[in-house]
Each structure stands twice: as structure tokens, then as C-alpha cells.
Write the C-alpha cells for this entry.
Amino acid sequence: MAKLTYITLACLLLGALLVACQPSDQNSTPDGRISFTSRSGDAYAIHTMNTDGSKQTRLTKRSASSQHAAWSLDGTRIAFSSKRDGHWDIYVMEADGSGQSNLTNHPADDQHPTWSPDGARIAFQSERDGNREIYVMNADGSDQTNLTKNPANDSSPAWSPDGTRIAFSSDRDGNIEIYAMDPGGKELTNLTNDPAADWRPAWSPDGARIAFTSDRHEVPTRDTYYRICMMKTDGSEQTCLTSSRGDDSWPSWSPDGLRIAFMSNRYGNQDIFVMEADGSGQRNLTSSQHDDMQPSWAP
């Protein structure tokens, strides 16, 4: 009996020590951070927050008008668009907001950056050719190259997790569709092929699915609302995850692929929401008096 009591006490002490060594819920951020753009009037600034909406921190000055944040796969750098020099350029900064530098420095507008998985290159959309094209450059801004070379408007590139494909939006077939190509601009494929407008693709971390924004609808009276939809990467099994009476757009996956952050104006202002990858459990993270937009989940 005494031996049993001793073992019980030892187990209780060990359990207490293990609990004490665990980080508190207040400081625990198992999914990292979410960056987003906050707008006040005509000013845009990039912020980060914990995945529960707490500890919101501004990284760029509001006077710099910065948006479209995109994390490098190692989580150490953020590429973004900024109009601080009078036109939109692609910038990069450290994850804490330090070391901000202009990569493109072109008089035309360059926006919507996306990193290659190895962090060596950045794809982006540019208007330097008179329309929107998808460009790629080295991560230091060198060797800027047009990939699409099409008279249509090509925008919102997203690099696949394995680095072999770049998804993007294009109106080359008359309406906006999601396409994919290889990193050299070849092997072009229309993935959505739907009468609706489909844009802003986002690859799941395992590369098996693409979330995107669409104005497709099932109820005719609701055709003005945007939805978050999903498909396999070959374009099959297209389905929509949201159906609110508001515009839901700009999906971004959690690192484990279980959740999706997105922006929505269903309650008036634009706010950052999060949901399970099947569309359930939708909840507001920011609930701000300002417009909070363009979430990007840190790796």
C-alpha cells in the first residue's frame, strides 16, 4: 500500500512539472501569425496579429500606403506592395518590419508578390507593359522577367508549395479565370473554366487544393456577393465554402491546412475572418472600426 502511494505521488509530481513547463495560452501561438492590411481613410498599413486576433502590431507607416503582404516560406521575410515613392513597387522587409527595401523601383505599378518555396525568387503582377502581366525576379530584385506576355490582364500570382506551378488570375478568355503555368511561363492551363469571375488563388500547404474568390452563385438574388471557393489543383471538385450576405475574399491557408483566413464585409467594415477548411466555424478576428483586409498566414 505504501509502495502504491509513493508511485501515485511521484506521478502527480511529474504531471505538475510537465504542466508547469508548458507555455501559457496567453503566449502560445502554435500557428504563428497572420499579417493583414488595415485601412484608415486613404492610408494603408501592414500589421501582424496572433491567430486569435490578439497582439495586433503595425509594421509599416500609414503614410507609406503598404499592402499585399506575403510571407517567405521560412517566415523570416515579408514581401509587400507600397506606394511610398508615388507608384506601387514591390518591397521586402524582415518579419518584425525592419529593413524595408524597394525591389522593383519601376515607374509602373508592381503589386501582389508571392515567394518561390526556396525563397530565391518572387513573382508579382506588373503594369509596365500597358496591361497587367505576371513577372518574376530574384529575391534581391534582379532579373525581372515577363512570364505571361499576353494582351489580357494577368494578376494575383500564387506559387505552388513544390515550386513547379504558379497559379494566377486572367481575363484572356473573356472573363476572369484561375490559370496555372510553370515558373517559366509555359504549360498554361485554365483551371476554373466557369462563366463566373474567379480570382485570387491560394494553394493549400500540401499542394492538393486551391482556394479562390468567386462571384459564382446558386441563388440569383445574391449574385453581387463574393464567395470563398475551393477546387483540386487540376480544377476538379469546385465547391464554395462561404455564402454570407457580404463579400468574402482573399483566402489564406493555415500552415497545417486545417483553416483558412479571409476578408469579409458581411458586418459592414472589412474584417479578417477565419474558418475551418470545410467552411465551418467562421468567426471574426478583428472586429475593427477600420477596414482590415488581405490576410496572409505566416508559415
Notes: The chain has one domain: 34-297.
